[in-house]
Automatic annotation (TrEMBL), chains A, B:
Purpose of the protein: Involved in the biosynthesis of p-aminobenzoate (PABA), a precursor of tetrahydrofolate. Converts 4-amino-4-deoxychorismate into 4-aminobenzoate (PABA) and pyruvate.
Domain of life of the native organism: Bacteria
Similarity comment text for this entry: Belongs to the class-IV pyridoxal-phosphate-dependent aminotransferase family.
Keywords from the UniProt entry: Folate biosynthesis, Lyase, Pyridoxal phosphate
Gene3D superfamilies: 3.30.470.10, D-amino Acid Aminotransferase, subunit A, domain 2 (3.20.10.10)
Top EC class of this enzyme: lyase
GO molecular function, one term: pyridoxal phosphate binding
SUPFAM superfamilies: D-aminoacid aminotransferase-like PLP-dependent enzymes
GO biological process: 4-aminobenzoate biosynthetic process; folic acid biosynthetic process
One annotated Gene Ontology cellular component of this protein: cytosol
Assembly behavior: Homodimer.
Name of the protein this chain belongs to: Aminodeoxychorismate lyase
């Protein structure tokens, strides 16, 4: 396994790798904190599901987790990025008879975001780039990510923290790098990801926390109109945690008490 | 530019490359014959269109063509594969302010297929894997190719030369590695690629040859029923040339005279 700190010389990958040629592979972005991977079982579960659907051998959970930990530092907070590809193969789409996956791990400093992102919320916009309806790949964190790249390229304004992406029918699905939740009358709602979108680990943690706390959750379609009438909206991922949205395009939004409660749970690592 | 023969040690690519991380890049598969790239202007045009749509700088046509030729051998027939990526960048979908593309070129022997593929036709099947409707990326030969990989993984039978892929509405669009044409009453038809599919160079050459020869061509939707009633069907790409289909699943097909004429044009390099 190639392991590197972003300040080190980057590892090199065969130009023949199917991850490069076709995006035949998956990735995970994990928190490494004080020599622990606090949410490894969840990440591994998504990775394993991706391996099954893309025809890659499923790695052993404990062996891979151990290998990741063995190479990371025992202190501090870091972002680990794991890429798992279908390995090298000749020219042509046909997978080799035996896939020998290639793993690449990179370590990045844990980013420091302004305190106000969590306290007062961020500004978010709608993207023009549409997510295709694609149940075959929905939910997976695979390496075919041109839609996210093109959506993120739509704005340069540093004051805008995230862009929301809709599917071909105009339903809001997710952010370019995050999942979305909205609140209606004390209920926590998030879009269905059965047709497109990435099933984020933070999204799963929030849904599980809400269930355990007795908060009603619903998975429903999210039309843009519904969003403007919501009591509140937030975005989440494993690195940013949870950011309330204070403005969506020109529409000002509130931070309801349920969102404050959830922010507190994330802060206390109860979520 | 990294250049290699497949028998040489493969060039290595940064594990940080956006081509690997997101599939942010394009490729071309070209014929190199006696030190010439006979269809370079067409390949370059598609590549340039892809660069514009994916936010990559458009390479100079003659400089890139010259660079490809300078590294290839002056004799024999070879396949050149050119990959052009958005280069290295940090973690995150946002493209770097200045993209410095990375080029990787690999050379492969020109494949020798059985003479009977051209003379008597091949066996083709329908794939279950559906192409998502995705006008944003339609036509391009980009690096997000999981659908082709999964479709090609559907069969192992060496007797089946290609699989046809349909879109979400069930319309046949293309083969996993080829474009499709069918014939009805002396007219040459091929599916529209405005919503999905790769706009192949061989497809373009055939359409241009037909126009120049006075043969009527139409771009129309291709429902599976229509295919079974067609006078003939063939698949094409820059490497295989043109292969008539003699059987589609359990349905036997003929090779009409127009297809023989076209095969002759390909043989004589008039197409």
């Amino acid at each position: 396994m190639a392991m590197h700190d972003e300040t080190d010389t980057l590892p090199r990958l065969s130009a023949n790798d199917r991850g490069l040629a076709y995006g035949h592979g998956l990735f995970e972005t994990l928190e490494l904190r004080e020599g622990q991977l606090p949410h490894w079982p969840r990440h591994w579960r998504r990775l394993a599901e991706g391996c099954r659907r893309l025809g890659l051998p499923v790695p052993d959970r404990d062996a891979l987790g151990g290998a990741l930990l063995a190479e990371g530092p025992a202190s501090g907070r870091h972002v680990l990025k794991l890429i798992l590809t279908a390995g090298t193969g000749g020219r042509g789409y046909r997978p080799p008879p035996v896939i020998e996956p290639v793993r690449v791990v990179s370590r990045h400093p844990w980013p420091i975001y302004p305190e106000s992102h969590t306290e007062h919320g961020v500004i978010v916009r709608h993207c023009r780039t549409r997510l295709p309806v694609d149940p075959l790949l929905a939910g997976l964190k695979h390496l075919n990510r041109l839609h996210q790249v093109l959506a993120r390229a739509e704005w340069q304004d540093e004051g805008i923290a995230e862009g929301l992406m809709s599917d071909a029918d105009g339903q809001v699905i997710e952010g370019t790098m995050s999942n979305v939740f909205w609140i209606e009358d004390g209920t926590l709602l998030t879009p269905d990801l059965g047709r497109c979108g990435v099933a984020g680990i933070m999204r799963e943690r929030i849904l599980d926390w809400a269930s355990a706390t007795g908060i009603e959750t619903l998975i429903e379609p999210l039309a843009p109109d519904r969003l403007r009438q919501a009591d509140g909206l937030f975005i989440c991922n494993s690195v940013i945690g949870l950011w309330p949205v204070r403005r969506l395009d020109n529409h000002e939004m509130r931070i309801p008490s349920l969102m404050r409660e959830l922010l507190q749970a994330v802060r206390e690592r109860a979520c």
